[in-house]
Design a protein that fits this description.
Elements (H helix, E strand, L loop, with lengths): L4 E10 L2 E10 L2 E9 L2 E7 L9 E2 L2 H15 L1
Antiparallel strand pairs: 1-2, 2-3, 3-4, 4-5
């Protein structure tokens, strides 16, 4: 069965206030936080099988594909 990935728009605290961000859920479990980057979206942190930080994704779809790869790699 294909895992359900959901992006929830939030505001993330910064040293200058706040910025757009997305919480990423995998089957309703918090998996990552993405914040804006000059060239797309920056992985602030990943959790569980996606435990990483510092990756850049050009689109949210690219981030979703990466989460799916993390899930497949951990099985």
């Amino acid at each position: 069965m294909l895992a359900e990935i959901h992006f929830e728009y939030v505001r993330s605290a910064t040293s200058n206030g706040s910025e757009d961000a997305y919480l990423v859920y995998l089957d309703k479990v918090l998996t990552a936080l993405l914040v804006p980057a000059e060239t797309g979206w920056f992985l602030q942190f990943g959790l569980g099988s996606c435990e990483r930080e510092g990756l850049i994704f050009t689109t949210l779809a690219a981030a979703e594909n990466w989460v799916r790869l993390c899930v497949c790699a951990s099985v």
